[in-house]
Structures are given as structure tokens and as C-alpha cells.
From TrEMBL:
The keyword Cytoplasm applies. Residues 250-291 are annotated as: Disordered. It comes from Delphinapterus leucas. It catalyses: Cleavage of peptide bonds with very broad specificity. Pfam families: Proteasome. Component of the proteasome, a multicatalytic proteinase complex which is characterized by its ability to cleave peptides with Arg, Phe, Tyr, Leu, and Glu adjacent to the leaving group at neutral or slightly basic pH. The proteasome has an ATP-dependent proteolytic activity. Keywords: Cytoplasm, Hydrolase, Nucleus, Protease, Proteasome, Threonine protease, Zymogen. One of its GO terms (biological process) is T cell differentiation in thymus. Gene3D superfamilies: Glutamine Phosphoribosylpyrophosphate, subunit 1, domain 1. This is Proteasome subunit beta.
Amino acid sequence: MALQDVCKWQAPDTQEASPHLPQAGGWAVPQGWAPQTFLQIHGPRLAHGTTTLAFRFRHGVIAAADTRSSCGDYVACPASRKVIPVHQHLLGTASGTSADCATWYRVLQRELRLRALREGQLPSVAGAARLLSVMMSRYRGLDLCVATALCGWDRSGPALFYVYSDGTCLQGDIFSVGSGSPYAYGVLDGGYHYDMSTQEAYALARHAVAHATHRDAYSGGSVDLFHVRESGWEYVSCNDAWVLYSELRKLPGPGPEQEREEEATPDRAGEGGGPSVAPAPGDSKMPAEAL
């Protein structure tokens, strides 16, 4: 059965079903309503979330994301792709409304291809980010929801930009977008440094997304990992988020029992260059340092 038969939708001014949507000015809005106000009041309010991250380091740009697409309390798709290739040396993370992200990435691919045909070379990562931000800024206030981290390698080396649907365009070394981003930032801030090796970068990205999926109800599924090199982007791996988090918990680290043992261990005499001083009976304060 065709979609038109299910929805009982007819094209304007015709009795035959048409696969084409109305033009930009032909949407049916109740008389007396401004489109922006109508969408804000009567538009759907479904909670959605995700965890995407990207960071720049010596050997390129890492992009990682979970694969759960949520729609309120419903998991719409457990295996969606949230890292979208744009061309051989550019890809981006997708956070926000899935339809908006997919649409605007197709628009960006088209515009970059047209510029490459006109100018004989692809624009830089900064140029692509500015182009996307300018195109989306014209739809500010119309419930467009696209938050992306553009990761690429151009003539200046690895580059990373954050672009939001209101026209925001920022350059940086670390970006995490989505409802799980606070948890991902907690892992990234503790393990990131620019001179890390490739394997260290892979492990950091996997652990950051896996930790976020454990704490954020709207994130989950698997962890997709991409690496943008000078030769182009590479799809590194896809790992189950729960398996990664289980492995993360098994890593050695100071547990509560070890911390209590270290606190209960007395200082050894002779360390620090002076004799140890015993506290006076009944004195609960720490001993004063030897002069």
C-alpha cells in the first residue's frame, strides 16, 4: 500500500496522488498563525539524545558516536549511523533531529561538489564549516536541530569545527555533543593530550562513549569509531557499548579498599630528611613538621 493511501494525503489543486511535496510557501498553516509560532506551540516535543565526540591529535582527527536513535522513551533504531562521510577527507558527527542531520549533510555534499567542479579543488574544512553554518542560520527559530562536529584534513593539516543550526561555528581540539556529552567530557579531559599515539586515541574515544552510554539513558547500542588521516577517513571499528564498559571496569585502578589502606599506612621514619615526630598523648592533630 502506498504512503499516500495510508496518510490520505493529496497534492494541492489536484485529485491525483503526487510524490512531490509542496513548495516552500505552500505548507498548510492555519489562518492567522505565523509558521514559527505555530511550530513552537503545536510542534512535537519528543525527548531525544545521543553521544558523539571528536578530537584532534598529532595523527589526525578521531570521531566516535553511539548508535542508538531515541524518540522519547522509544528506541527508534539501535544501529543508526551518526558519523556521516561528506567526502574522502571530511566527515561529521550527527546530533539532533535525525531527519534534519541527514538532509543538511546531503545539502553540504552537493554544495561542496559544485564548488569543487567550479574551482577545481575542494574547499578547506574551515570553508565547509562556514558554508554549513551560513546555510542553516537562515532557518534560525524554525525548530531546526543540527549539531555537528566536522572532522577533516586539508592543506593546513587536521582540523575540527563545531557547527550548530543557529549559525554557531567554533574551532577547537575537543568537542562532544549530545545528552551524554558531560560524561564523555569527564573521560576526555582526564586522558587527552595532543601527542598521544593512535592506539591511545582509539582507546580514549571508545572508553569515553562507552562510559556515556552507561550513564545516559538516551545513548547506547554500539560505538562507531572513525579516523581521519592525511590519506582520507577510515572506519576503524564498531564495538558493543556494554562490552566496552565491562572491559573499562576491569582496568586496574585505585579502588576504595586500596585508598583506605594508603590512608591507614603510617609514614616511614627518615623520609623527608628529618626525624619522625610522634604526637602527644590525647592530641588528635597531625604532628608538626620538624625544623
